[in-house]
Amino acid sequence: MAAASASLALPSPLSSFRSNGPLPSRCFFRLNNPSRSRVFMSVSLGSQTVVDDALFADYKPTSAFLFPGQPAIYVTSLAAVELLRARDGGPQIIDSVDVTCGLSLGEYTALAFAGAFSFDDGLKLVKQRGEAMQEAADAAKSAMVSIIGLDSEKVQQLCDAANQEVDVADKVQIANYLCPGNYAVSGGLKGVEAVEAKAKSFKARMTVRLAVAGAFHTSFMDPAVSRLEAALAATQIRTPRIPVISNVTSPVQWETTVKTLLTKGLKKSYELGPGKVIAGIVKRMDKSTEIENIGA
User: Fold this and answer.
1) Which sequence positions are flagged as catalytic?
2) Is the pLDDT of residue 258 over 50?
């Protein structure tokens, strides 16, 4: 990989999406009345306009947490690219980006930016992803909790201790290595509750139960795999025009992703889309690194 003079980082669903806040001028996203079963989306990105009501015709309000939330984040993040492009020097900034990456769902946005698939195809993929993950989350009681103030080895020991007290179906694991001192644990509800109960005895500073639908990035999501595999197999995927740092499989190694960028000589990063979680993580790992949020 070439030295990372500039990078784009895209958010995950754990970043807040402000549906009532200002959106970039080139993006319009509107949820219909919650009692109705349709989502209407109109997106203008550069010269391409997508108006695809039919894509969302089968939307059901019961799955509102992951869908349409995931398409909303995907669309808003790519609209932020155009917001960046529209400002003075924006085209030059975008041309200077030589690597991109995304946290969880953000990988899809990163791949779309890099040209691995079209905006339209990416939107269809994240729709399928959100629906499949919601179905998997609905199938079993599961949860996620963030552990603050412990290194990854201690968090693993905490998981091991909690797993000794629950059945196999409720076991937990580290699902997200965000940054030093901040790791997300996923698993069965009873396992997560055991982690929360034991955290103080392991000297954790605090725990935060995450407002998510289920145990993401664990075997609890296995039921979603076949549907997403089929969607990917039906999608035209091209070689990205720039490198994309991808997690591929297993727990989300975001800490390693950021370390990789820093060791490659990262000079400037742009966090695109809702929330400023990534900027906070990068600054925590290297205060001297410049990162700018676009579209938060």
Assistant:
1) 104, 217
2) yes
